[in-house]
Specification:
mainly alpha, 4 helices, single chain, about 80 residues, Acyl-CoA Binding Protein, globular
Length: about 80
């Protein structure tokens, strides 16, 4: 396992230690960066019209299309560190 992958997975565990829940925009950024870093570009169909949370997640992840997984991992780690800082 690469050092970056290990650091990414550690950040995913560390984010669980937050004292307060981040705002929704930050949660969407975390979700999208995590998914892009772990799975790459979105390949799923958009959720149904009334699935507002699913649609927001889908759009946030789709917005990162083309961002290399390594870059998404770095951004995720930096955001987690900022939130824990």
């Amino acid at each position: 396992m690469t050092d970056l992958r290990h650091e990414f997975e550690q950040a995913a565990r560390d984010i669980q230690r937050l004292d307060r829940r981040p705002d929704n925009d930050t949660l969407l950024k975390l979700y999208a960066l995590y998914k892009q870093g772990s799975e790459g570009d979105l390949r799923r169909t958009q959720p149904g019209f009334f699935d507002f949370v699913g649609t927001a997640k889908h759009e946030a992840w789709a917005h990162l299309h083309g961002v290399p997984e390594e870059e998404a991992m770095r951004r995720y780690i930096a955001l987690v560190r900022q939130l824990l800082g």
